[in-house]
Design brief:
Helix content is 26%, strand content 31%. By secondary structure, the protein is an alpha+beta fold.
Length: 134
Amino acid sequence: MVTDRIGDFIIRLQNAARIGKPEVSMPYSSHVLAIAKKLKELGFLTAVEVKTKGDSDVQKEFVATLAYDAHGQPKLRGVKRISKPGRRLYVPSAEAHAVKGGTGVRVISSSMGIVSDAEARKSHVGGENLFEIW
């Protein structure tokens, strides 16, 4: 059993991008699905689809399709997990700075849902500093 679903998800994405795999499947979690939808909005993923395993609706999974540029290079180049299950780190909106000179994104879980660093600064909302992606 995986105790850190977010960490597992972003590492699966990073590994798939490094080997050129087009999509990643992940056990269903509404929180991780919201993160995947935010990554789709930010351009790191092209599609997010929820599927059921077998005949029952009990076992769900979702499939995230990675985004690649015109040269076949993945748009996701790296990730860094910040807040972990054993050590939760929170950030106020003023400290949600840009990642890698603006080429990356900091993903924050706030009271408004999953937001990027730019959205957190614009809305003046802080939250749990989940990870950085570039």
